[in-house]
Amino acid sequence: MVAQPGKTPRRAPRQGRSKATFDAVLDAAAQILSHEGYEQMTTNRIAVRAGTSVGSLYQYFPNKESLVIALRDRHAEKMIEAFETIVASLMEAPLANAVPAIAQAMLASHNIDPELHANLNILVSHLGGGRRLVDKVEARAVVVTRAYLEARRDEIRPANVERASFILVHTVYALAQQAAHHPQYRSNPAFVNDVADLVLRFLTKDPAVT
Amino acid sequence: MVAQPGKTPRRAPRQGRSKATFDAVLDAAAQILSHEGYEQMTTNRIAVRAGTSVGSLYQYFPNKESLVIALRDRHAEKMIEAFETIVASLMEAPLANAVPAIAQAMLASHNIDPELHANLNILVSHLGGGRRLVDKVEARAVVVTRAYLEARRDEIRPANVERASFILVHTVYALAQQAAHHPQYRSNPAFVNDVADLVLRFLTKDPAVT
Amino acid sequence: MVAQPGKTPRRAPRQGRSKATFDAVLDAAAQILSHEGYEQMTTNRIAVRAGTSVGSLYQYFPNKESLVIALRDRHAEKMIEAFETIVASLMEAPLANAVPAIAQAMLASHNIDPELHANLNILVSHLGGGRRLVDKVEARAVVVTRAYLEARRDEIRPANVERASFILVHTVYALAQQAAHHPQYRSNPAFVNDVADLVLRFLTKDPAVT
Amino acid sequence: MVAQPGKTPRRAPRQGRSKATFDAVLDAAAQILSHEGYEQMTTNRIAVRAGTSVGSLYQYFPNKESLVIALRDRHAEKMIEAFETIVASLMEAPLANAVPAIAQAMLASHNIDPELHANLNILVSHLGGGRRLVDKVEARAVVVTRAYLEARRDEIRPANVERASFILVHTVYALAQQAAHHPQYRSNPAFVNDVADLVLRFLTKDPAVT
DNA sequence: GATGAATGAGATTTCATTCAT
DNA sequence: CATGAATGAAATCTCATTCAT
Question: I need a labelling partner for B12 at 20 to 30 A (CA). Which of A19, B48, C181, D81 fits?
Answer without folding.
Answer: B48
